[in-house]
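[Solved] Which block belongs to which protein?

Original post:
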Amino acid sequence: MTPRSPPPSQHLNPQRPRHQWFSTPRLAALLAVAAGALLLTGCAPGRISNLAELTRNAEPFTAHPPQPEKRLLIVGDSTAVGTGADTPAQSLAGLIGQHHPRWHIDNLAANGAKFADVAQQLKGAVGGYDMVLVLAGGNDVIRFTPMFSLRNELQQTVALAAQKGRHVVLMPCGNVGHAPFFAAPLTWVFARRSERLHSVVQEVAATQGAQYVRLLRPRDEDPFVIHRDTLNAADGLHPSSAGYAEWYRELVAQGGLAPLVPATP
């Protein structure tokens, strides 16, 4: 599959050359986890191939309109990049851009990033943003970041994000254990780790003045389980275009963009 060129309204971040978006070491780490899942659970080999292709072709959405009304910085992992969406415009960042075409959107996210990597993304970012949206956590779950390390890295991430923007929103992925990519026993392990991740994120957000958007749901209420054929991408690990639309609805419904959107009378 040939990588798509972004439409004119979506242009590549001039500060991030294309070769930096796709990190071979990070893809190797993802594929190592996938291979482990295959050995432990009998995960379909086709999903690993789909994962590699989706990761290779993913491009982060950015938008730089003249005289923007607001400035938004997005950092994080593959879900911030939009891996799994059919086009960059159908990623979460792209949907924000479609609904708010006068917003300047920079996207420094990278496939495979953990919270420690997100902190590095923020260290390289300029300041002056109205909001910083952080989408991460899934790689810390599947790559077994110790919870004490995760807390420290998350605290550093929020502190750095607060230096770059007036508002900080933390939006970790839903329950990784519910992803069709995995089967038992990893589903049980990752489900528990996802719950612990969200507990830490919620606590750090409350203590450091960030906003937390909750995508975690019980299995019988999780839309990615109920509508697994439409909301999950072909790899069974990332959201599809419809999945990112579901995330966008949650972001709006939980007031994640409210600080930048004028209240309607």
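(Second protein starts here: sequence line, then its structure tokens.)
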Amino acid sequence: MHTIEETVEIAVPVRTAYDQWTQFKSFPRFMTAVRRVEQVKPNVTTWVIGVGPVCREFEAEILQQEPDSRLAWRSLERRPSHRGEVTFRSVGERRTSVCVRLEVEARGVAGALTVVPRLTRRVVRAELGHFKEYIEGLGEAGGSWRGSIRNGHVRPVEPEPPRSRVPCWPVG
């Protein structure tokens, strides 16, 4: 297993960075290696990635997702397999540190190409830079999903309790 970790600081609040990251279908707009992403279920996505003439499709399961904090996943394919997580941390007013950590296991010839340390690290660093440019240019997220996932089980957004229509209780 080979581990890669890259961090970028972004000039938007944590909520904005996190909300945009959860919009997987928008990844091809700013990530050059991502060609298509489809949300099959709330916790399963299908990815088509490619660099140059090399193209690969895989499914990933979201294992953990906590709003404004963390998203962790694992690929459902065996060759090559990978796990990853992205964390979001406030580093000041309207500034967020986004850290991506990938663990890639090479199997076979195709897998060996994905763990060339410098190449994979370079791609991750470049794609994080593209995310930074994209979200800073927008200034706000193009959508959001505020639910959570624990151990692969989806927990939808908790609705806010209804507010009382009585402004002050009791009066007089």
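Accepted answer:
You had them paired correctly. Confirming on the second one: Strands lie at 2-10, 34-41, 44-51, 54-66, 70-75, 81-92, 95-105, 148-150, 153-155.
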